[in-house]
């Protein structure tokens, strides 16, 4: 398998970097797309121990990028790259176009260059119904569920940033499946994770963390906000599922819902108080993170469990590994 090289888009991102490592550990050779030559040098340095099993391709722009060099000698693609921001100035330019057109661009390039197997990173945001409470309802979400918000609503500027993000993931996913129907030789799977948490694999600055990592860091830096979502997936599990899916034909044409379980920041603070008592003075008081008593919705993860054989990382393990890394980073960055 060492000779089989796959392409991972967004290789320097939080999830993308984990996918790269998981693929390398699984015996693949990997090419990662990066936005600039300087980013290429950073990751080549970080993953130098893999030698020529890891290389990079510079694709500066999701929508207008040229993938012809990136796809040379590639047997499959894991398309992770997609913007994730909570505040949006221009919905169309910031989120909607990069997500949808970026996905279509990759699929068109794959078709042209003879690459047939593609795993696309979706999001549970494309599945949930925010008009009925999202994850706060007595309901079990399955792969048949779709977020009812529309492109027209998102582009109008009337929706908050997270709702625009949800629509961006929905229309990108719809475009992927539509492409698959038009070109049945393409073998497309979409992974739809809940909020992704976990440790980082590439060096990062604590002042410029990705969105979900910032949420966890806020538990110990005095900036905690309310729990955004009661469901999580450990980034290592999400990466594992992306890589495993490459070799499992039964998930072709499917959405794979990915959810490790439920959590609250109240639970997180209690775990840290017990397991990391040295951080007690940095934690918010429990009344700030008042316990949520409503039961969250369920997510049907049967495809991930039965067809891809995942064993979920516990929230406690996910939380502790992440916080421990932040403490190490603080020491290195002298915060």
Overall description:
This protein is of the alpha/beta class and 335 residues long. It has one domain (5-333): Rossmann fold. It is 39% helix and 15% strand. The chain has helices at 14-25, 37-46, 91-112, 151-155, 161-182, 211-221, 235-245, 265-275, 302-307, 315-333, and strands at residues 5-9, 29-34, 54-58, 74-79, 117-121, 140-141, 187-193, 195-197, 231-234, 255-258, 261-262, 298-299. The strands form 3 sheets. The chain has a 7-stranded parallel beta sheet with strand order 3-2-1-4-5-7-10, sandwiched between helices. Helix 6 (211-221) packs across helix 10. The chain is globular, with a radius of gyration of 19 Å. It starts with a strand and ends with a helix. The mean pLDDT is 93. This is NAD(P)-binding protein. GO terms for molecular function: oxidoreductase activity, acting on the CH-OH group of donors, NAD or NADP as acceptor. Residues 6-248 form the NAD-dependent epimerase/dehydratase domain. Keywords: Oxidoreductase. Belongs to the NAD(P)-dependent epimerase/dehydratase family. Dihydroflavonol-4-reductase subfamily.
